[in-house]
Write a structure and sequence with these properties.
The protein is mainly α and 612 residues long. It has 25 helices and eleven strands. Helix 9 packs parallel to helix 18, helix 10 packs antiparallel against helix 18 and helix 18 packs antiparallel against helix 19.
């Protein structure tokens, strides 16, 4: 697997925020036989995740945007549509090339660790096991992505330092059974509870068990429904998830008393419910991408700056710089019930005034922009008082009038979505006429950069800049009981699934003030425990956590759920069955002598040597 074939890395590495050792003219065998050289090699396993994945834009688009609960914002309706809606997605897309190469880079680095580790001198057994576990964790994670994205692909388990010009497909089930699952299992056995040298962001035992649960659950999709083979993988996924659930204390997991605490900025760097994070540093020079390490806070907000007098400065943390990339679908907003405090924690509906002049006087153009009553013209809204409110509810003219009397514009679902044309599955399009006017939807704030206290934790260098340094959670405890419940459904025990949900997810900490636990658990019954119900609950609990595309693919719902829950703005729903896989990048095929034999995935432009 040389630089001319599967990736950009050929055991020559760029800098990252972990200490590394860069060999110059020394042979790899000599360099990696030293503890310093081996540690530098292991450190490189995390570079790509920090540089281009967790905290950056592309995964937000293709893991969350390519689904049913998020849509492109009106102003960016055509932005990244090859990723979010599969429009003109072909093998020549740079994002496809990047996803392929960076994951094969990680495979090659992991292979190198496993190849050179036995001959490395001066390592304790504890460190040797740790390094092997980290390599196997990374290889399993990378191949899981590659197989789910691209299907049957080239399997490499030996580090390659020289260019190779032939590749052959291996059945995805073989890759799961011979590499992904065994690697995840070995990582779970070898990795320590605490990260190597205390470095947050390195793989540990709890992360490996979580990965084992994920990949066994994913493997089940490739067996006949209800078969003994499928049930075997459900059982293995359940066992891994249950291990995490039953050994929280031993694994260093402590659940917070309230749901809000999970997402508080002050808990980000020491979060006791995160199972694996990609870490970013407040010292920009230590990050793989110094200028843009973590920008997750940018991507989920309506355009608020310069609306209704709202302005931003370097320290106006209520309104940091915006990217306005994705918005919730009508379907997603209607999944939330009033008893569910998770909605209140994760979404912001009310926005206080923030004007450099100290107050905002409503003018006719801005009143019209938000479909507000004419009585709002001339009203003065002081800083700190609500100036805009975007709710997940329907609103009446009387409610709009009452809001205007208090100095703010109120927008409901009908202001943003085509509510007159909701389909039987609960989805509808975004209104076309809002593209040139307002964006009025609740702001998703799972990835917050402060807790509202100017003297507290702030995970952003400047509110009007890009440099955020929050750690990005990749795996979180709540995923484990959701996996366990899904497995129990697959194993024919829906009553057990319902009990897991009651004990671990729909418990008292998700109940909003003024509501009762019985409300939260009313629909958690054995009769309701279906894959469709689990998908709804995963949407509520795991929204924005890089899993929605995998969830819809694994359950065979990708095409139907996108069309039904997230119908395209222009009615052109191009997604179809071939989008369960991505295209193979043409840049890879071009470098092969047998590129046409390796071939493109079905449904995409057939590969012709020199023709693309």
């Amino acid at each position: 697997m040389g630089a001319l074939l599967l990736g950009a890395t050929s055991l020559s590495f760029t800098s990252c925020d972990l200490d590394e050792y860069n060999p110059s003219n020394e042979g790899a065998e000599a360099v990696f036989a030293t503890p310093q050289g081996m540690e530098g090699l292991v450190n490189q396993l995390y570079y790509n995740y920090k540089w281009k994945y967790f905290g950056r834009e592309d995964p937000v688009l293709y893991f969350e945007g390519a689904g049913d609960i998020w849509a492109n914002t009106p102003e960016k309706n055509e932005y990244g549509m090859q990723l979010t809606r599969f429009v003109n997605l072909q093998g020549d897309r740079g994002q496809v090339k990047g996803a392929w190469e960076r994951n094969y880079d990680n495979v090659n680095i992991a292979n190198a660790v496993l190849q050179y580790l036995p001959d490395c001198q001066g390592l304790s057994d504890e460190v040797r096991n740790d390094f092997e576990g980290e390599a196997r964790f990374t290889r399993a994670f990378a191949y899981w992505w590659l197989v789910e994205w691209f299907g049957d692909i080239d399997l490499r388990t030996v580090a390659v330092n020289e260019p190779s010009f032939e590749a052959y497909r291996t059945d995805r089930k073989v890759i799961y059974d011979q590499v992904i699952i065994p690697d995840a299992q070995a990582a779970a056995e070898k990795l320590p509870v605490k990260p190597y040298n205390g470095n947050i962001g390195r793989a540990t035992k709890k992360a490996a068990y979580a990965l084992l649960a994920r990949v066994c659950l994913a493997r089940a999709q490739y067996e006949a429904k209800g078969s003994a083979e499928q049930k075997n993988f459900y059982q293995r996924a359940y066992d891994a998830a249950k291990y995490v659930m039953d050994n929280k204390a031993a694994l260093g997991i402590t659940l917070y008393n309230t749901y809000d605490e999970i997402w508080q900025a002050k808990n980000n760097k020491t979060n006791t419910e995160f199972l694996w994070v990609v870490s970013h540093s407040s010292d920009a020079s230590l990050n793989a991408n110094p200028n843009n390490p973590n920008r997750l806070h940018l991507y989920w907000s309506p355009r608020l700056l310069d609306k209704a007098g709202i302005t931003s400065t370097a320290d106006s943390w209520e309104y940091p710089k915006e990217s306005a990339l994705l918005m919730p679908t009508y379907y997603f907003l209607n999944l939330w019930k009033n008893w569910d405090i998770r909605y209140q924690v994760l979404f912001q509906e009310e926005f206080p005034g923030a004007n450099r002049r100290g107050s905002y006087t409503w003018d006719a153009s801005m009143v019209n922009n938000y479909n507000a009553p004419a009585a709002l013209v001339g009203k003065i809204t002081p800083n700190g008082q609500t100036v805009l409110k975007f709710t997940k509810e329907h609103v009446t003219a009387a409610q709009k009038d009452a809001a205007a009397a208090q100095g703010y514009a109120l927008c409901g679902l009908e202001d943003t979505y085509d509510v007159a044309n909701v389909n039987p599955q609960g989805g509808c399009r975004i209104r076309k006429d809002i593209k040139t006017k307002f964006e009025a939807f609740p702001r998703f704030k799972k990835y917050r950069i402060w807790d509202g206290d100017p003297n507290g934790t702030i995970l952003l260098k400047a509110a009007n800049g890009n440099v955020g340094f929050a750690d990005a959670p990749v795996m979180r405890y709540a995923e484990m009981p959701l996996i366990a419940a899904e497995c129990k459904i697959g194993l024919g025990d829906p009553a057990a699934a319902a009990q897991i949900i009651k004990d671990e997810i729909r418990n008292q900490r998700v109940v909003a003030p003024g509501h009762t636990l019985s409300e939260a658990q009313a629909d958690v019954t054995a009769g309701n425990m279906t894959i469709e119900w689990i998908l709804e609950e995963r949407a509520r609990e795991l929204c924005g956590e890089w899993l929605r595309w995998f969830d819809l693919k694994r359950t065979g719902k990708l095409v139907d759920y996108i069309r039904q829950h997230n119908p395209a703005w222009d009615g052109n729903d191009v997604v179809d069955a071939h989008n369960y896989l991505w295209p193979i990048p043409n840049t890879f095929l071009d470098k092969l002598t047998n590129g046409e034999q390796f071939g493109q995935n079905p449904g995409y432009n057939p590969y012709v040597k020199g023709g693309n």
